[in-house]
Specification:
The chain is α+β, with helices and mostly antiparallel strands. The protein has 19 helices and 29 strands.
Length: about 750
Amino acid sequence: MATRTIGSGQVGRSVPRLEGAAKVTGRAEYVHNIRLPKMLIGKIFRSTVAQGRIKSLDVSAARALPGVYRVVTIDDVKTVIPNPLYGPAFHDQPILADGKVHYIGEPVAVVLATDPYIAEAAASLIEAEYEELPAVFDEIEAMTSAAVVHDELRPAGTFPDLKHLKGKKNTNIALDFHLRRGDPGKAFAEADHVFEHTFRSQQVLHLPLEPFVSAAELTETGLTIHTASQSPSFVRIEIARLLGWPENKVRVKVPYLGGGFGAKLYIKLEAMVAALTLLTRRPVKISLTMEEQFYTLTKHAATFRIKSAIKNGRITGRDCEVWWNGGAYADIGPRITQKSGFTAPGPYDIDNVSIDSYSLYTNLTPAGALRGFGIPQLVWAYESHTDMMARALKLDPVEFRRNNILRDGRAQATGTAMKDAAIEAVLDRLALRMNMKAPFDHGGGTVKRGRGIAIGFKASISPTTSIAIVNVAADGSVTLYCSTVDMGQGSDTANAQLVAEVLNIPAESIKVVHPDTDVTPYDMATLGSRSLYHMGHAVRLAAEDAKAKLAALAREVGVPEGANVPVAELFQKKYKMQAGNIIGTGSYIPSYVPPDANGLTPEATPFWMVGGTGAEVEVDTETGHVRVTKLINVADVGRPVNPRIVETQLSGAAVMQFGFTMQEKIELDGGQITNASFADYKIPSIVDIPPVMQNEAVESEQGSGPFGAKGVGESGTFGVSPAIANAIEDACGVRLTELPLTAEKVYRALRAAQGKPLEE
């Protein structure tokens, strides 16, 4: 028995996005558009001190404002959720501040009204008095500061490597991860050269154009949450835990997202709207403003000290210390500390490695996953360090990398063998596209030109689980049920292509059901470029299960082997009418071995992502202004499922990291954010983007991936920052070690190099 055939395979086609028409015509569903009967709108009153005890909270004026339905504090929340603490790694974040505030902008109270303007006006009438306590903002200072953010550590129990921290007091270290391989001390003692540098990356914002938004409503069977979330399955589990309910009483529905980038993972507003709905017995919705995003989640600022031993042009030893600024609540920072921390030595073949990676609490907005899961901060450091060493040794930067990169089959720092990671192919293609062997015109007069490259890699988070269902209806039409969230990355289309490849039907004919925990099966989350690999396998297995059941049905109704009978005819033969369906299921979890006491494991990750960037710049030495004239992004994405989507993913990732490299930074004054608006926090516009930007996937195949594929959403971020910094030094001879690479920093460095430093 065979299903319908078409002229070519579905994997490898640039199928137009399935949701494209709905989005461009304005019919696509978003939580921001939801309206529920008798719905209340919540507006949040926030802390104005970085760390302090709440001495008093006066909500009387807010309650008295006409139109206000209710003002809610933590005492009210505790009547419906007695222990209102949540978090993926630590149960450290309260739904509303409980006796103490830990950062400026922390939610303290919520005003509810049917009119959002009334709720906002009432929130401004709330008055709080605090006993201010010492605060800490810098990740290095947090290691030893007497200002302790939390009285004790409360691991969530989800991750075994955190359980030993339960009840630990007087520390800001949420997790310290250590890896030791070989004998670094001996390597440094025997080295021809030793290089040591320190790099810093700044706190920046995800800033999806759809801010955080959630709504909740009570139903006959429990609670339904409509939310812009990347992790609906986690939200369901965590809300059920908070309420002490079985999971089947909590339903989480996610339509399209207007961007996520890691911001909309785990619990953000969902616990708050759940509590408010239980208190009022009415639907409640909270939609944050653009400004409020600055007080919800950021990217980790980080400090990275890296030290390398060189002997005969080879890197023989590497010592890394990384301090991650996690803000006031841990979120997923401990996972970044470990899962990205172990890649700190870079994609290089180094036998002797020492890594210390620390997740720190500070009195800033919490930090979490942001497109790259900590990898861009690491690549920024180790690829700047690589160029600095090559320059000092008078070696060609491309050849220096080529002589030291990990090759297939060789062990990475964890001891896990590098497989199907086209590091050399990415490097070679990047060097060719940048024409690195040819002479380069460095310019004359006051405008100098330079070029630089950088490569990086990332391990996929592991272990995680994905489950999918493929439903073949009696007329032969196919529906895919999975909880992968399409937030612009094209996952609906790619997953449909995987089903289509197995069933040999057009991808455009497949319906993909959006995440709904009452309908779609469990998926850990849409994060870390894991979906195409993990959910892709589950989808493939579900489609293969459906295909096998269709073949069994064909045999049952007497269809000869190999006969091409339409699916609808099979159901007609079986049920004597258009009736019935076939359900295929698939689940996938990769193998994983937890690291030992030295941080070593033979299976740290199911696959590796590789990306590199080449940059050309012009530097005005009179002003320090840097213009990036060319940006070339090359990545190993395995076999591209949808080449056009791959290209746009690389482009989008590179542009985002370009903003973090050149201009974006959350400005702080004593813990207070001073540029919390689009007017002051500038993301790249079309006039900022390099005039030449090209993206390419090298020919490669992920042997363990679904049809040879793997994720791509983050690969374009890896090399952007160091490639531009390397190009700046190539142009004008100054090296910047702190992001962003602003004109002021370049000018100050130029003046310092001339022996005419500017006063701070």
